[in-house]
Amino acid sequence: REVVVIPRVHAELSSPTILTLDYVGGTKISDVRAESGHDLEKVAKNVIETAFRQLFEDGLFHGDPHPGNIFVLDDDRIALIDFGLVGRLSRPQQEALVTLIVAVALRDPDTVARILNRIGVPEAHTPIAEFREDIRGILDRYLGLKLDEIRTATLLRDLLDLAIRHRIRIPKEYAVLAKASITIEGMIRRLYPKLAVLEVGLPYAKE
Questions:
Q1: Closest CA to 122 of 80, 164, 183
Q2: Which of 49, 82, 100, 158 is the most buried (most CB within 10 A)?
């Protein structure tokens, strides 16, 4: 059964000024508690599964997943609403993201530097050795952390910020993705802090 619900648009009841959708009855994700009968681990896994499927199967992702746009149904499935901001990843961008995730998991600064150079547009000649050492410094900060301790989204933002400091222009899709990822990961940490985000998501990247 699908773990994510997207409200269907009723075209026959819509117009240029009115958008009619299915009604979704659920609990705002920020209000979900174990006391309300929800399985918090299952909800957290469903959120991650939904996010990775958007990235690696659809190439289309919700760009503004704040708590008001994510509802949890009584059976712990996830409902997404308000698609005013949507990000798209082309097939090459998806493949680059997979390689970046694997390179980060392997703590391989050479590959991380090469991928960031490839997905971005260098505005000037960037000394690759200097860039690689700065990446190594970021990865070293996460050295020794277990998968469930790594703030994956924060790491992605740190790497993208570093690329910008080295005058590499990163496509806006990755900026939208980094912002959305930080929001999603914050929800996961509140719901079920022990969940290893990479561990749940890597099978989708491998596939």
A1: 164
A2: 100
* Helix or strand run (H / E) with residue 101: helix 91-105
CB atoms near residue 188 (< 10 Å): 21
Rounded CA separation 14/25 (Å): 21
pTM of this prediction? 0.82
How many degrees, rounded to 5, is the angle at CA 51 between CA 167 and CA 33? 120
8 Å CB contact between 188 and 181: no
Using CA atoms, how far apart are residues 56 and 52, in angstroms rounded to an integer? 6
How far from each other are the two terminal CA atoms of the chain, in whole angstroms?
19
Dist. CA 139–CA 158, nearest whole Å: 10
Q: What is the CA radius of gyration of the chain?
A: 18
Q: What is the pLDDT of residues 98-149, one digit of tens each?
A: 888 888 878 899 999 999 988 887 776 767 888 999 999 988 887 666 555 6
Nearest to 47 by CA among 175, 185, 154: 185
Q: Which residues contact 62 (CB under 8 A, 6 or more apart)?
A: 54, 69, 80, 83, 85, 86, 87, 180
C-alpha 117 chain-centroid distance = 21
